[in-house]
Recover the amino acids of this structure.
């Protein structure tokens, strides 16, 4: 294969989770977590932040538990303390306890950000936040 073709293939797999590009609104609002991220479709979780004293296997288990929810996604603004508006200062979501990149079997990448109250999912197809269930 030519270097140009290999480069084009790599570029086609790049994912931008930093900026909202959807002109048609946010189709995830009002859907449940399994509608946008079925647990059985999670291929891998890449833990990028865990402000806890737990070992990584417990943090990753907690993230999987948080994703096993049937809650309805709300707009990002509902969790303003966790997810400041787009365009804010870098690192401004210091309230986050866990951050991870979720890779699905279909090749999707979804950003996961959570604190003790809210969980937010950010993907190329939409974004949404939901409150954690209380034990």
């Amino acid at each position: 294969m030519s270097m140009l073709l290999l480069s084009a293939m790599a570029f086609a797999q790049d994912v931008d989770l930093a900026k909202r590009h959807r002109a048609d609104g946010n189709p995830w609002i009002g859907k449940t977590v399994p509608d946008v991220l079925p647990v059985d479709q999670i291929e891998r979780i890449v833990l990028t932040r865990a402000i806890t004293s737990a070992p990584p296997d417990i943090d990753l288990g907690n993230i999987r538990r948080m994703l096993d929810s049937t809650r309805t996604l709300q707009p990002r603004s509902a969790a303003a303390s966790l997810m400041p508006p787009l365009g804010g200062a870098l690192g401004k979501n210091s309230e986050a306890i866990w951050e991870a990149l979720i890779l699905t079997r279909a090749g999707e990448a979804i950003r996961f950000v959570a604190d003790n109250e809210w969980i937010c999912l950010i993907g190329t197809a939409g974004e949404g936040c939901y409150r954690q269930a209380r034990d």
